[in-house]
Design brief:
Strand content: 35-45%
Distance between the termini: 50 Å
Helix content: under 10%
Radius of gyration: 19 Å
Shape: globular
Largest sheet: 4 strands, antiparallel
Number of helices: 0
Number of strands: 15
Strand order of the largest sheet: 5-6-7-8
Low-confidence stretches: none
Length: 173
């Protein structure tokens, strides 16, 4: 009938879709990735210890960015959205840094710039913009306001970034 129906309600990947010849059912392979953050001290013993404990893809972490003082920023899902989080190297002070939008992707960090990330707004158009915040979660500020922009790379000094937008790409200072 031309009507779209939602078939999944998670953030897992589905591939190899197959539809029954009579159209009454479908099959797909579900790909669920579980990633956790581990920390290994150099001294006295370099044994890695986990500091996040996801057991399924619903809690699995995404891109990790080292922050000053041994902390780390990372993306992780919550309530079918992906937010930006921070955690100290010993696993303490885990906290959610973003609460708006739908999905945080392409996170990067530089001392001169802070945490730079792409946030995809949920809703009809799913528009992405580039944002920044301080390593402690303060100073949240939207950097772009076009028709949809995505962070590609941040200069190590934090003084320039490369991004891509609808129909354009470039470097911003």
């Amino acid at each position: 009938g031309g009507e779209a129906l939602r078939m999944t309600n998670d953030l897992d990947g589905y591939t190899n879709l197959s539809v029954a010849s009579d159209g009454s059912s479908l099959a797909a392979m579900r790909r669920a990735t579980v990633d956790n953050l581990w920390v290994a001290r150099v001294e006295p013993k370099p044994e890695a210890q986990p500091i996040t404990f996801a057991s399924g893809s619903a809690g699995s972490i995404g891109r990790i960015e080292p922050l000053p003082g041994g902390a780390a920023a990372f993306s992780a899902p919550k309530d079918n959205k992906v937010f930006l989080w921070r955690i100290d190297a010993d696993g303490s002070d885990r906290r959610q840094l973003t609460s708006q939008g739908g999905f945080v992707i392409n996170t990067d960090y530089a001392d001169g710039a802070g945490i730079i990330f792409t946030q995809v707004e949920t809703g009809g158009n799913a528009v992405a913009h580039i944002w920044r915040m301080d390593p402690d979660g303060n100073g949240l500020r939207q950097l772009t306001e076009g028709g949809g922009e995505e962070l590609i790379s941040l200069a190590a000094a934090g003084n320039a970034l490369a991004g891509r937008g609808r129909g354009t790409s470039g470097c911003h200072r």
